[in-house]
């Protein structure tokens, strides 16, 4: 497969193939906040599925709340909240699309700002930390995921990866960026505070490295992440991962199953 085309910034065109752009409004590469109102997709448009079947619903960010042809809501309900710094978010991300019964957008948030409790920062002793890591590794193995290799530091500073995810969300590629990023962290053992590993994950979703490097420094991208985190707090999200259904919040990897049952019962 050939690499992504060189960007044509002088013409104001997106830094991704034009046929994949679905954000609507200003191109995030032009410095504006990403427009994600039209970046939803049907459940059939998960990574590896065929192309979207309706114009304006391209991409892998599953918009919610659109049952009458209106534009999908990029933050639900429902919504899947995650942060790369949290290993349980990795476990949840690997199965949330196939587990939840309705299309659910992915919303990156800064978990360090959430009320908590923050399990991966509050271990009483090394034995507790070791037990938590063993539980994650055992669950990953039971689900047929790649063997877990831990970054040097957990939790790590996920700011760069979160900003890159918000840029990807504006392009309808938040899932196709975020899953490789999670795997870089917890299957590859790479700290996503490193710019290099964020760029490797971005390459898997065919985003140009120059666009990512620019996005990491842009105030509107940082502001979008901050505002989404504020909204998550208002909705009752305490930790990641979490699924917000509009009336309840389900926390943790187990919360994915609980949210699925709750949504299916409606």
UniProtKB/TrEMBL annotation:
Residues 1-13 have a biased composition (Basic and acidic residues). Pfam families: DSBA. Residues 1-81 are annotated as: Disordered. It comes from the Bacteria. Residues 80-263 form the DSBA-like thioredoxin domain. Transmembrane segments: none annotated. Residues 27-57 have a biased composition (Low complexity). This is DsbA family protein.
